[in-house]
Amino acid sequence: MSPTELHDFFRNDRFAEHVGIELLEAAPGRARARLVIDDRHLNAVGVAHGAAIFSLADLVFAVASNSHGTVALGVNVSVSFMKAARRGALTAEAEEVSINPKLATYLIRVLDEDETLIALMQGTVYRKRDALREHLP
């Protein structure tokens, strides 16, 4: 799929849209997205909820892993939160580390506006035989 087709496909990710995530870049094995933290993203102690940060990381994981045009579904993720985020924009960047016909692994970094590392996620996907185009609306 072209980066434009991939970007258009992931506009249908209704959860990411609901959370307020904006996909900035999609390329083979890579993706970048942004989330501006507002009141709805804060937990009870006033910092960005882990689920909001995870959702941002998960979107770029999905985009990067599906960028080759084959349906890829997460089978395992591990996330480490390095620093609390309170306000401002967070950016997540996914990078493909390893790929074969059945599995692929990605490293995702979530950074704040000062480029401080907020979270680090590693994810593995199972690559199905289905073409992503078969799932276009």
UniProtKB/TrEMBL annotation:
It comes from the Bacteria. CDD domains: PaaI_thioesterase. This is Acyl-CoA thioesterase. Keywords: Hydrolase. Residues 46-118 form the Thioesterase domain. Pfam families: 4HBT. The keyword Hydrolase applies. SUPFAM superfamilies: Thioesterase/thiol ester dehydrase-isomerase.
